[in-house]
C-alpha cells in the first residue's frame, strides 16, 4: 500500500524544481494512498491538490492549507465530509464516486464561504430522495452542484421545503447506516475466514509437494534425493505448472464471486492484485536462468567478433594517414559514461551498457596512439587507431620494424647510386674544349684591365685551327 512520503512529493514536483515548500500544485493520483498525511506540514502554499483514484478513507490533515482552492478526492473510500473548515480559500471540491452516506455531514462546508462548486455524484447519498434540494438549501454559497448550475428559483423552492426534506434525508440516512454496519460485519467475517485458511495452508507445507525422509534414517521411495537431476527438473516444472493452474482457477473464482461495492471490497481487490503481482514475480525469478559469460577470446588466444548491442558500424582503412577508423553507431541520447573503450593491437572492444562489441582488426595498431571521440550530432563513436609497419596476415611471421627500416634505407641508397652512375661522364671517352681558354686577350682593347691567357690548341684535338680574324668571345 502507498503512503505519502517526502520522496513521493518531490518526484511529483518536477515542475517546481523539486522544491516542495513553495509548491502550489500537486498531483498524487493513482498511488494507492490509504491515508492523508504530512501535506499540511510540507506544502502549506498549495492551491490545487489532486488525490483522485486512491484508497483514502478519511479527510484529514488538510486544515492548515489556507490557500487551497481546488481539492479533488474522487474515486476514494471517503464516507463522511469533515475537517475542511480550515481551508478558507476552497472554491471547488470534487468527491465523485466515494461512499458518502451521511449527507448531513455537508453542513461542515458552511464555513467555507468561498465554495462555489461541489461534486457528489456517484455517492450513496446522491440516490436519496430530495438530495439536491437538501444540498442547495444547506449550502447557500454554492453556484454549481454536480456540474449543473443552481438557479435562484431552485434555491428559493429548496428553502421553502427544507424542513420536510431534512426529515426525509434523516430517515434515509439512518437506514443506510444500518445497512452499512451489516456490510462491515460481513466483510470482517470474510477477512477472518480468509486469514484462517491461509494460516492452515502455511501450517501444512506437505501440500506444496515436499518429500521427507523416514524416521529410521533412510530415504523413502518418494525422496527427491533418490531421483536424478532430470526427473527432479521435470517434477519441479510440473509443480510450477500445477501451481500456476491452481492460481488461475483461484483468480477466476475471485473475479466471478459477486460482491458489493464497498470500501472493504475495494481494499480486498487491491490486496488480491498485489498478491498476484508478487506471485508472478516469484515465478519469473524461478524461471530466470543465469546466462553463461560471453566468450570473447578463445582458449588458444584468438579474439572473436561479437556484437551483443546489435549496433551498426563501419571499418575504414585510411591509407593516407596510415590508420584504421571504426565508426560505431551508438545510441544518440545515451550517456557517455555507459561506454568503455579498450583498444588492443589486434582487436578493439567497446562495452555499451555492459554489452560487449568486439571486432578483430585487419592490421596491427598502436593502442597508446589511438583516440576515441563522440559525435555531438549523431552520437556515433569514432575510434582512430594508427597502424604499425608490420601487417598481420594469418599465421605468417610479421616483419620487424627495425628490419623494414634498414631494408628501405638500403634500397634508397642503391637507387641513388644508380642515378649517379648514369650522370657520370668519362673524360677519356669524351673531350671538350677548355672554355676558360677560348677567349684570347687583345692588347689594343683598353677596357680589359687584366691580361687574359692565350688560347692554345689542345693536343688532343688535331682539327683545331686558330683563326686570328675571329673576334674573341666576351
TrEMBL record:
Q: Which UniProt keywords apply?
A: Cell projection, Cilium, Coiled coil, Cytoplasm, Leucine-rich repeat, Repeat
- Ranges of compositional bias, category Acidic residues: 458-468
Q: Where is the composition biased (Basic and acidic residues)?
A: 408-432
Decide whether keyword Repeat is in the record.
yes
Indicate where this protein is primarily found.
Answer: other
Q: Where is the composition biased (Polar residues)?
A: 395-407
Which residue intervals make up region (Disordered)? 394-474
Mind telling me which Pfam families this protein's record contains?
CS_DNAAF11_C, LRR_9
Q: Which residues form the U2A'/phosphoprotein 32 family A C-terminal domain?
A: 128-146
Q: Name one GO biological process term.
A: epithelial cilium movement involved in determination of left/right asymmetry
Q: Does the keyword Nucleus apply?
A: no
Which InterPro entries does the protein's record reference? CS_DNAAF11_C, Leu-rich_rpt, LRR_dom_sf, U2A'_phosphoprotein32A_C
Kindly give the SMART domains that the UniProt entry links to this protein: LRR_SD22, LRRcap
Q: Which compartments does it reside in?
A: Cell projection, Cilium; Cytoplasm
Q: Per the record, GO CC terms?
A: cilium; cytoplasm; extracellular region
Q: Which domain of life is it from?
A: Eukaryota
On subunit structure and binding partners, the annotation says:
Interacts (via CS domain) with ZMYND10 (via C-terminus).
Q: Which family does it belong to?
A: Belongs to the tilB family.
Stated name of the protein: Leucine-rich repeat-containing protein 6
Give the classification, highest ranks: Eukaryota, Metazoa, Chordata, Craniata, Vertebrata
UniProt lists the gene as LRRC6
Amino acid at each position: 500500500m502507498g503512503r505519502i512520503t517526502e520522496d513521493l512529493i518531490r518526484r511529483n514536483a518536477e515542475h517546481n524544481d523539486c522544491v516542495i515548500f513553495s509548491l502550489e500544485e500537486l498531483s498524487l493520483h493513482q498511488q494507492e494512498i490509504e491515508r492523508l498525511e504530512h501535506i499540511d506540514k510540507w506544502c502549506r502554499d498549495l492551491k490545487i491538490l489532486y488525490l483522485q483514484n486512491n484508497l483514502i478513507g478519511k479527510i484529514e490533515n488538510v486544515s492548515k492549507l489556507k490557500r487551497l482552492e481546488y481539492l479533488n478526492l474522487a474515486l476514494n473510500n471517503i464516507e463522511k465530509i469533515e475537517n475542511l473548515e480550515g481551508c478558507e480559500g476552497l472554491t471547488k471540491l470534487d468527491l465523485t464516486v466515494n461512499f458518502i452516506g451521511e449527507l448531513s455531514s455537508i453542513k461542515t462546508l458552511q464555513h467555507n464561504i468561498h465554495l462555489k462548486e461541489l461534486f457528489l455524484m456517484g455517492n450513496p447519498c446522491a440516490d436519496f430522495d430530495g438530495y439536491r434540494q437538501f444540498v442547495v438549501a444547506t449550502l447557500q454559497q454554492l453556484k454549481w452542484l454536480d456540474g449543473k448550475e443552481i438557479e435562484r428559483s431552485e434555491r428559493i423552492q429548496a428553502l421553502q421545503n427544507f424542513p420536510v426534506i431534512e426529515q426525509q434525508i434523516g430517515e434515509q440516512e439512518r437506514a443506510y447506516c444500518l445497512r452499512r454496519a451489516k456490510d462491515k460485519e460481513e466483510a470482517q467475517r470474510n477477512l477472518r475466514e480468509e486469514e484462517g485458511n491461509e494460516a492452515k495452508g502455511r501450517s501444512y507445507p506437505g501440500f506444496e509437494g515436499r518429500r521427507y525422509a523416514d524416521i529410521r534414517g533412510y530415504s523413502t521411495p518418494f525422496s527427491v534425493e533418490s531421483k536424478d537431476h532430470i526427473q527432479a527438473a521435470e517434477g519441479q516444472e510440473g509443480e510450477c505448472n500445477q501451481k500456476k493452474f491452481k492460481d488461475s482457477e483461484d483468480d477466476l473464482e475471485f473475479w466471478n464471486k459477486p460482491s458489493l461495492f464497498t470500501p472493504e471490497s475495494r481494499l480486498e481487490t487491491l490486496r488480491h492484485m498485489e498478491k498476484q503481482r508478487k506471485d508472478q514475480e516469484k515465478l519469473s525469478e524461478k524461471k530466470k536462468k543465469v546466462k553463461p559469460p560471453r566468450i570473447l577470446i578463445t582458449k588458444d588466444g584468438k579474439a572473436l567478433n561479437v556484437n551483443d548491442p546489435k549496433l551498426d558500424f563501419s571499418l575504414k582503412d585510411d591509407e593516407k594517414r596510415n590508420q584504421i577508423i571504426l565508426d560505431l553507431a551508438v545510441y544518440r541520447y545515451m550517456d557517455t559514461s555507459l561506454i568503455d573503450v579498450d583498444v588492443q593491437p589486434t582487436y578493439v572492444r567497446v562495452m555499451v551498457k555492459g554489452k560487449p562489441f568486439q571486432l578483430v582488426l585487419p592490421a596491427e595498431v598502436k593502442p597508446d596512439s589511438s583516440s576515441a571521440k563522440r559525435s555531438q550530432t549523431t552520437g556515433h563513436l569514432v575510434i582512430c587507431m594508427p597502424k604499425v609497419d608490420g601487417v598481420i596476415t594469418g599465421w605468417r611471421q610479421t616483419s620487424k620494424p627495425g628490419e623494414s627500416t634498414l631494408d628501405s634505407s638500403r634500397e634508397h641508397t642503391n637507387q641513388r647510386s644508380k642515378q649517379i652512375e648514369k650522370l657520370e661522364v668519362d673524360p677519356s671517352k669524351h673531350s671538350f674544349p677548355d672554355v676558360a681558354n677560348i677567349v684570347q686577350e687583345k692588347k689594343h682593347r683598353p677596357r680589359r684591365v687584366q691580361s687574359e691567357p692565350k688560347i692554345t690548341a689542345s693536343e688532343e684535338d688535331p682539327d683545331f685551327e686558330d683563326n686570328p680574324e675571329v673576334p674573341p668571345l666576351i
